[in-house]
Structures are given as C-alpha cells and as structure tokens.
Amino acid sequence: MLRWVDVLKYARYSNPEPPRRLVLTEAEWAAQLTPAQLAVLRQRGTEPPYRNTYCRTYEPGRYVCAGCGSVLFEAATKYHAISGWPSFTQPAAKNALSYHFDDGHNMQRVEVRCNVCAGHLGHVFPDGPAPAGLRYCINSVSLHRLSPDDPVESH
C-alpha cells in the first residue's frame, strides 16, 4: 500500500520502473486520441468537474489508461470524494503511475501520469480515506473502464 511519504519520495527522487514504455510522436497521439483525450493526456488539461463519464460510476472492473491500455486502478479502490472527478485510494500496482511536482495554477500539487505512456491523468492528494489517506483525483477522459470479464489490451 502506497502512502503519502512514498508518493513524495517518488516525485522527489525516482519513480518506479514501468512494466514497459510507449513513446509516440505528437502526430501519432493526435491520430489515436479524441480531441478531449489529447487535451488532457498530452497537453495536461483538465475536464470539467461533475460532467464527466466516471464521476458517479461504481461498477466492478478495472480502469485502464485511454492512451495505452495499461491497468491504472481497480474499481474496488474508487470512492465518492465529492471532488467532481473520479477518485481512487490506490493505484492497481506500485509501478502503474509516475509522480511529478506541479506548481502550476499557483498551487503546489503532485501530478499523476501513466507510467507507461506518460499521459497526464490528474493529481494525488493526502486527504483521502484511511488507511493510506490518498486521494487520486483523475480525469475521466484519461480512462477507460473495463468490466471484470474484459481482457486488458495494451497498445
């Protein structure tokens, strides 16, 4: 289980090694992603709160990266944080995400990216529920939800 101290250590020193890497040109990303996905995943944008696909979705399954198909979160770790975006307590695996300090918008936050394709997902905060106290606040457009029976298909 990751804790806030682990997140800060990764952001400050070194992220866990991903299981694989996917590197595409901006033209290849533009051909593969929708305009909304491109704006969030590649240009570090944010979708509007509360009006996104997975804000109020709690069905079983897995959430994978919309860019590369890597498993990022299990639905069992999703909870209602009233933040306006899907919130999770833990990543699916220690090396599923990478962490980066983000001081944009006059705030100090920790950005979360897919560790395989480096797509921007959202941010993590230390105000989540026990036991770890983490809240991964993630843009819906950066995710696809798979049902428990769906195979994981990485790009």
Automatic annotation (TrEMBL):
<dbReference type="InterPro" id="IPR028427">
    <property type="entry name" value="Met_Sox_Rdtase_MsrB"/>
</dbReference>
<feature type="domain" description="MsrB">
    <location>
        <begin position="26"/>
        <end position="148"/>
    </location>
</feature>
<dbReference type="InterPro" id="IPR011057">
    <property type="entry name" value="Mss4-like_sf"/>
</dbReference>
<dbReference type="GO" id="GO:0030091">
    <property type="term" value="P:protein repair"/>
</dbReference>
<protein>
    <recommendedName>
        <fullName>peptide-methionine (R)-S-oxide reductase</fullName>
        <ecNumber>1.8.4.12</ecNumber>
    </recommendedName>
</protein>
<keyword id="KW-0560">Oxidoreductase</keyword>
<dbReference type="GO" id="GO:0005737">
    <property type="term" value="C:cytoplasm"/>
</dbReference>
<dbReference type="GO" id="GO:0006979">
    <property type="term" value="P:response to oxidative stress"/>
</dbReference>
<dbReference type="Pfam" id="PF01641">
    <property type="entry name" value="SelR"/>
</dbReference>
<dbReference type="GO" id="GO:0033743">
    <property type="term" value="F:peptide-methionine (R)-S-oxide reductase activity"/>
</dbReference>
<dbReference type="InterPro" id="IPR002579">
    <property type="entry name" value="Met_Sox_Rdtase_MsrB_dom"/>
</dbReference>
